[in-house]
Amino acid sequence: MAGGAVVNTSGGKDYPGRLTLFVFFTCVVAATGGLIFGYDIGISGGVTSMNPFLKKFFPEVYHRKQMKDSANQYCKYDNQLLQTFTSSLYLAALVSSFFAATVTRAVGRKWSMFTGGLTFLIGAALNGAAENIAMLIVGRILLGVGVGFANQSVPVYLSEMAPARLRGMLNIGFQLMITIGILAAALINYGTNKIKAGYGWRISLALAAVPAGIITLGSLFLPDTPNSLIERGHPEAARRMLNRIRGNDVDISEEYADLVVASEESKLVQHPWRNILQRKYRPQLTMAIMIPFFQQLTGINVIMFYAPVLFETLGFKGDASLMSAVITGLVNVFATLVSVFTVDRLGRRKLFLQGGTQMLLSQLVVGTLIAVKFGTSGVGEMPKGYAAAVVLFICLYVAGFAWSWGPLGWLVPSEIFPLEIRPAGQSINVSVNMLFTFVIAQAFLTMLCHMKFGLFYFFAGWVVIMTVFIALFLPETKNVPIEEMVLVWKGHWFWRRYIGDADVHVGANNGKGAAIA
Predict the structure, then answer these.
(1) Among residues 37, 8, 70, 153, which one has the least CA distance to residue 491?
(2) What own/partner pairs with CB < 8 Å and gap ≥ 24 does 275-280 have?
(3) Nearest Cα to Cα of residue 478 among 23, 21, 28, 8
(4) What is the pLDDT of residues 195-237, one digit of tens each?
(5) What total number of domains does the chain contain?
(6) Average pLDDT, whole number, for the chain?
(7) Is the CB of residue 133 less than 8 Å from the CB of residue 57?
(8) Count of beta carbons in the 10 Å neighbourhood of residue 280
(9) Domain range holding 311?
(10) What is the DSSP string of 29-46?
C-alpha cells in the first residue's frame, strides 16, 4: 500500500488478553455517549422541516416554504437564524472540548462523560420547553457542552479499555451509537410530525433527555481505565483493573510495565499543549487536524443535518422527506456494522480508500441528477422514479461514509497519541471536528442557494483530496498497541524524518522484536 507502514506484531508485542464480558459491557455503556451526538444530528434537520416549528420560530422561512412550486427550490430554507439554531451547538462543543481535556486528565474519563451527559440533559429540557429563540439557542449551547465532553472522553476511553487486536471494533461502537441516535431521531421525527396539535417538535427536542440520561447514569457505573489510574497515581488499582479487563488468568505484567513506562514519561510533560507542537509529535498533530477537517468536508452533515430539508427541496413532500431520512438512517447503521466487523481485519487504510472512492462516485451522480431536473434556476419537479434514483445514490454515499470516514474519523485520532499528550490531542481532534461542523451547518443552506447542484461537486472535489492524503500519509495502525504506535510513524516513508531514534521508547523491553515491515 502506497505510503503504508505495518508494525509486525506477530513477532513483537502482542499482549495476551481476550474480550471479556466486563470489557464488552463497559465499552457498550461508554459508547452510548455517541447517542447524544447522533440524536442531535438527526433531530435538528427533522424539526426544522416541521411547519409548526417554523411558524413559531422562523415565520419568514415558513411563508417562503408555502409559496407555489414555481419558487426556487434551492433557496427556500436559506436563513441565517435557522442555520444558527443548528450550528450553535457545535460552536459550544468546540469551546467545551478544551475544558474537557483538563477534566479528562485530572479526574478521569468517566467523570468527563458524566459532565457531558448532565449538561446535555439540562439542554434537552430547555429546548423541549422553549418559547422563544433565546431559549432555543441557550438550550443548544448546553447540548453542545455535553457533546464536547462526551466526544472528548468516549473515544479515548474505548481505545484504552480495548485489547489492541480488537481496539478498532470496540472503538467503532461510538460511531455505531451515533448512527443509532441519528436513526432514532429520524423515526421520532416521522412520528411526531403526524401530531395534529402541532407540538410534535417539542417531543422531538425533549426526547434528547433519554440518551442523555443513559450516558449520565451509565458513566457512574463505569470503571476508570488502567491508563488513567496510573496517570493519576493509583498504580495498584491500575494493575487490578488491567488484570480484570484482560482476564484473571492472563499474564498482564508486560502490558502493565509498558503502561507504567508511558506514564512516567507523561509525568515529565508539564505542558501538554506546548509539547504537542514538538517536532516528534508532528505526524499525530497533523492527523488530529486533517482527519476531522476532511471528515466534515465529505459533505456528510449536509445529508445528516438537513436530510428532511434536503429531500423536501428535491421535491419530496412532508412525510416523504422524513421517511427518506429514515431510510438513509437505516443505511447508516447497517453500513457502520460492516466497519465494526472488518476494521481489525482489513485495516483502516483499505476502508478509507474504498469508502472515499464510493462517496466520490455517488456525489458526482447525485449532483448530475439534480442538475438535470433543477438546472441553475432551481425550478422544476422530480418524478417519483427519478427521486428514487437520487435516494439510492445518496444511500450509497452514506454507506461509503459509514464504513470509512464516519467511524475511522474518530478511531484513528484516538489511537495514535502517546499518553503524555493524549487528552490534548483528542481535544484538538474534537475541536477541529466541531469547528468545521459549525461552519458547514451555518453555511450549508446558503451554499445550496448560491452553488445549487454544484455543491455536490464541491464536496466531491474535497473527497478526491482527502483520499489522496490518506493514500500517501496515513500508515496502517491495526493491531498495534497504543504505546508502540511510535514505531508506525518511525517506519513511514514521510513521517520518519520527524522522529529521531531517541524519541522511540517502547515499554519495558524497549520495543525488542517489534519490527517495522
Answers:
(1) 8
(2) 275/420, 275/421, 276/421, 276/424, 276/425, 276/428, 279/498, 280/498, 280/499, 280/500, 280/503
(3) 8
(4) 989 899 999 999 999 999 999 999 999 999 998 898 888 989 9
(5) 1
(6) 85
(7) yes
(8) 17
(9) 21-503
(10) HHHTHHHHHHHHHHHHHH
Report the distance separating Cα 73 and Cα 79, nearest Å: 14
**Cα 253 from Cα 482, distance rounded (Å):** 16
Q: Is residue 4 part of a domain?
A: no
Is 513 inside any structural domain? no
- Average pLDDT per consecutive 10 residues, the chain (517 residues; last block may be shorter): 35 65 89 91 85 91 72 73 87 89 87 94 95 93 93 88 85 90 91 91 95 94 90 90 83 85 74 85 95 93 67 67 82 93 93 97 90 76 77 92 93 86 86 89 83 89 97 93 87 93 62 39
Q: pLDDT tens-digit profile of 185-205? A: 989 998 998 898 989 999 999
CB 420 within 8 A of CB 505: no
Beta bridge pairs of residue 7: 516
Is the pTM value of this prediction over 0.70? Answer: yes
The CATH number linked to 377 is: 1.20.1250.20
User: Helix-strand-coil percent breakdown of the chain, rounded to 5?
Assistant: 75, 0, 25
Helix pair angle (319-346, 167-192), 10° resolution: 170
Residue at grid coordinates 506484531 = 9
152 within 8 A of 431, measured Cβ to Cβ: no
Task: Report the C-alpha dihedral over residues 15, 20, 26, 28, rounded to 10 degrees.
Answer: 100
**In-domain check, residue 255:** yes
The answer to the question of residue 64 being in a domain is yes
